[in-house]
Amino acid sequence: MKKNILLALALVLIATISTAQIKDSIIKKPVAFPKNYVAQLDVVYTKVKDWEGKADLYLALNETKPTPIIINIHGGGWKTGSKDTQGGFYPFFKAGFAVANMEYRMSDQAKAPAAIEDTRCMLVYLIQNAKKLNIDPNKIIIMGGSAGGHLALMGGLLGNDHRFDTNCKGTENIKVAAIIDKYGIMDVWDWTYGPDHKSSSPAFWLGDNAKNEAFIKTVSPITYITKNSPPVFIVHGDADPTVPYHQSVDLYKRLQELGVKSEFFTVPGGLHGKFEKDKNTEINEAILKFIASLAPFK
Questions:
Q1: Strands ordered across the beta sheet of 67-73
Q2: Are strands 67-73 and 98-102 parallel, antiparallel or unpaired?
Q3: Residue 159: pLDDT band by 50, 70, 90 thresholds?
Q4: How far is it, in rounded angstroms, from Cα 45 to Cα 34?
Q5: Which ranges constitute the DSSP H helices of the chain?
Q6: Full DSSP string of 16-50
C-alpha cells in the first residue's frame, strides 16, 4: 500500500516537472511594432473564478480617428499553445490595424465550450472598451489558425447568439467585419469521428460530451452559417495531415451556397501551417486585399 502511494506521488511529480519543462520550452516570439504603436501586455479581458484571460494589445498612437483591429487566436488543438508564440503582425500594423493577441483556457483547465466563451469575451471586451482603446467596433477582424481558426469562426459566426456569452453578459450588437480562418475546424464531429480523423485533441476538449452529437453540433461553426454571416477568408494547405483539407472545402462550399462573401486560398502541397516565408507573404497580401474590399473599409 505504502509503495503504491509513493509510486503515485512520483508519477504526479514527474508529470508536474514535464509540464513545467514544456512551458519553459515555449519559444516566445518578440513582436516588432512601429514607433507610433504602444504595447499593453497581459491585459485582463475576462476572469473565470481564479483564472484570468489575458491579451497583448498593440495600439496605434495619436490617430485622429478610431483604428480597425485584428483579434489573433493561437492554435494547438485547444490543449497547447500560447499567445507568446505568435508573431507576424507587422503587415497588419503597416496597414493601420491594431492587434489583440489573446489567450484562452486550455482543455486541461476547462472543457468545451470554455475556449469559445473566452473568445466571445475578447470580442465583448473590445466593443465595451472601444472608445478608451481608440478602436472602431465596426472594423473588428477575428483571425486564428487550426483550433484558433475554429474559435475565430465560432466567435464571428455566433453574432448576437448569446448562448456562450455566460461570462460576458449585457452586450448587444456583437459582430465582426470579417473572419480569417487558417486551416481551422468547421465540423468538430467530423474531425473527431470522421474517416480522416487523426487527432485525440477534440475528444479531450469535449470531455464528457465527447459522444454527445447534439452538443458537438453547438460547438461546430458549420451550424451557424447563414446568408447574413460575416465575410470569411479561408487558408488551407491541401496536404494538411492534421486538419483535413476537406473541412475548408466544405466550409467554402456552404458559404458560397448561401451567398456569403468568401475567398479560399489553397496552398498546394501545404501542410498544417508552417508555410514558406514567401507563401506567408502572399497570404497576408491576399488577406489585406480581401479586407480592403469589404464595405466598412472602403
A1: 37-48, 51-60, 98-102, 67-73, 135-145, 178-182, 232-237, 262-267
A2: parallel
A3: very high
A4: 24
A5: 2-25, 90-94, 114-128, 130-133, 147-157, 188-193, 201-206, 213-218, 245-257, 277-292
A6: HHHHHHHHHH----PPP--TTEEEEEEEEEEEETT
Are residues 157 and 225 in contact, defined by beta-carbon separation less than 8 angstroms?
A: yes
- Show Cβ contacts of residue 135 under 8 Å, excluding neighbours closer than 6 positions: 59, 66, 67, 68, 69, 98, 126
> Letter for the amino acid at 292?
A
Instruction: Look at residue 244 in the predicted model and tell me its pLDDT.
Output: 96
**3-state DSSP assignment of residue 89:** coil
Section 90-96 average pLDDT: 96
How many degrees, rounded to 5, is the angle at CA 229 between CA 257 and CA 225? Answer: 60
| Whole-number pLDDT of residue 242 | 96
Contacting residues for 167 by C-beta, under 8 A, at least 6 apart: 46, 48, 117, 118, 121
Orientation angle between helical segments 147-157 and 114-128, nearest 10 degrees: 60
Residue with cell 470580442: 123
Q: Which residue has the cell 475565430?
A: 152
Q: What would the DSSP string read from start to end of 203-216?
A: HHHHGGGTT-HHHH
Cis peptide before 113 (omega within 30 of 0): yes
What CA dihedral angle connects 10, 11, 14 and 18, to 10 degrees? -170
**Beta pairing class for 135-145 and 67-73:** parallel
Task: State residue 95's pLDDT score.
Answer: 97
Q: How far apart are CA 107 and CA 170, in angstroms?
A: 26
pTM (two decimals): 0.90
- Mean pLDDT across 285-293: 98
First and final CA of the chain: distance in angstroms?
A: 72
**Cα–Cα distance, 76 to 202 (Å, whole number):** 11
Q: pLDDT at residue 228 above 70?
A: yes
Residue 198 has a pLDDT of 77
